[in-house]
Amino acid sequence: MKGIVALVAAVAAIAVLPGFVESYGLSFLVQTLIFVCLAYSWNLIGGYAGYAHFGQVAFFGLGAYVGALCIQAGVSWLVAPLIAAAFTAFVALVLGMIMLRLSGVFFGIGMFGIARVCESLAMGLDGITAGGTGLYVEVADLHMLYYVVAGLAVLIVALTWRLDSSRLGLQLLTIREDETAAAALGVRSTQLKVGTFVLSALMPGAVGSLYISYLGYIDPFTAFAMMTELTTIAMVLLGGLGTVFGPLVGVVTLSVINELLWARFPEIYLSLVGVIILVTILYMPRGIVAYAQRKNWPLVPVARAHLRHFAQRIQEARK
Amino acid sequence: MPYLELLLSGILLGGVYALIACGLNLIFGVMRVINFANGDLLALGALLAVTLVLSFDLPYVVALFLVPLIAAAIGLAMHGLVIRKIIEGPMIMSLLATFALSMIVVNVSLLVWGGGFYGLPQVLSGSVSFLGQDVPLARLVSFLLAMFAALTIWWFLQKTRFGKAIRAVSQAPELAVVSGISIERVRYVTFALGTGMAGLAGVLMAPMFAVDAQFGVRVGIKAFAVIIIGGMGSYPGAMVGALLIGVMEVFAGYMFGQVIGAACVFLAMLVVLIFRPSGIFGIGARA
């Protein structure tokens, strides 16, 4: 019940927010919501299944290019994301069946390489992608775009919420903790991982396509930017890997810091994000949300409330 | 198609890849950590060599000794400040950490050297005749030095007492500890060796290529392909894989152009992952 109230409140807040900001603020919100979608998708495979994924930007970039080509072919910018998402999901299915049979290290470096190969292919196959010149499409209405991206963001947060307290979510967590033990308990680890991977590729594809409707332009370096990858990972890690609200906390924190401080220092931006990742890993490896829970900060959304509930009941039973 | 010429230039290229791939594999074998920053230390090494030779007027030979030492020192710092503290944790953390380190190295290099391309085409210019082919002197010397360094370290691992300790930690860490080997020291030395090899590969590449701060990413993914094809954690695997990749890249590049050529290398890696995930000499890749 509390969950539904929170969801309704969040949706209402998102719906009325554009009334209070100007177009610069709206633009900031669209970018932030795009990162919400990316971060939650990354959280599925990186946080819940525990696979270090350095190639999410490949799906984002592929989505952007598929979207751009669709829009240039006359498809509406609202339909193009669906096609882009279907395409990236298919690519993820094929790649996942190869890469997810292997241990995490192979997956990590393999996906990293695939993102870079996609970038050089986008550069090289200039008959289709126009190479470094880039593709141009019509910019979509910012308000409309905001609502579409916000809808996707709410969808994936809600989905993660459901997943977190479901049997499926717990199975993913067992894979993360000990894959052999998970398999011994009857968890179909490969199918589950591939399914999660496909799910985590849908949103980047759709958002990539929406991103070009926002920018009006795409080239290989924008589509497959290292910055997108690194920022997404830093956001999830900072907020808390494999938690429901961690990525949201991370996205908001990093977006605000970015907006206030680093917009002025673009040349050291990526180094600073790298430092944030390192500091988080060393001193707060479970992210802000877990840290806040441990310290009993008030007003921090507590994920996995049911687990805490169980813990309390066990403690009471012991007394 | 000029088979002999392509074969020769592929092998010469592969020799330098061997050096960086061996460094990666050495670190992976002992610590089960993939150092994403190795490629970027290579780029840093190349840029440092250019600066030492052009701005400080030092001879290339000095750079050849100094730069690997600097890279090894950076490696020691990386291990001491970051890797050492998370190596017992989940693998995803060490992957994320070295990825972050890689980004920091790239972007600091960008800050220092800017986005431009640098090289040392004047060092070791000219060519020699070998098997009836004109071979650029820089490539031949780089190949020989890279092979010499890789084989010296191979000898060190096989024959010396400390080398045996390194292999012991790589094969059975618990038994190594009960035999009185200091794992901590072995890890420090391994990390320094691996990053030093990347630095040396960088110096050797400076006369061959125009290098920019982001060169490491491009070489890095080839080094990953090498160790996957050759076998993770296997030193001879890295050497054989590197020569294979070098030859494959040159042939594919000649036939389909640079871009598709690079993609072919990656395709080969995917094929190996499907059919023989442990690579040629690997220690097993399955989850």
Describe the structure.
The complex is a heterodimer of chains A (319) and B (287). In chain A, α3 packs across α10 (189-215). The mean pLDDT of chain A is 84. Chain A has helices at residues 2-16, 23-48, 56-72, 80-99, 104-124, 126-129, 142-164, 167-177, 179-184, 189-215, 220-223, 226-239, 246-260, 269-283, 287-294, 305-318; strands at 135-136, 217-218. A two-stranded antiparallel sheet of chain A has the order 1-2. By secondary structure, chain A is mainly α. Chain B is mainly α. Chain B is globular. In chain B, 75% of the residues lie in helices and 3% in strands. At the A-B interface, α5, α12 and α14 of A face α3, α4, α9 and α11 of B.
Compact description:
The complex is a heterodimer of chains A (319) and B (287). Chain A has 319 residues and is an all-alpha fold. Chain A is built from 16 helices and two strands.
- As for the number of domains of chain A, it is 1
Biggest contact: A-B, 46 and 48 residues
Mean pLDDT of chain A: 84
> Would you list the SSEs of chain B in sequence order as H and E?
HHHHEEHHHHHHH
Number of strands of chain A: 2
Gross morphology of chain A:
globular
Contiguous runs where pLDDT drops below 50 for at least 5 residues of chain A: none
Helical amount of chain B:
over 70%
Pfam families (chain A): BPD_transp_2 (PF02653)
Keywords (chain A): Cell membrane, Membrane, Transmembrane, Transmembrane helix
Transmembrane segments (chain A): 28-45, 86-115, 144-163, 197-218, 230-256, 268-285
Subcellular location (chain A): Cell membrane
Name its key features:
heterodimer, A: 319 residues, mainly alpha, two-stranded antiparallel ribbon, 2 strands, globular, B: 287 residues, ABC transporter involved in vitamin B12 uptake, BtuC, two-stranded antiparallel sheet, transmembrane helix (chain A), ABC_transp_permease (chain A), cell membrane (chain A), transmembrane (chain A), Branched-chain amino acid ABC transporter permease (chain A)
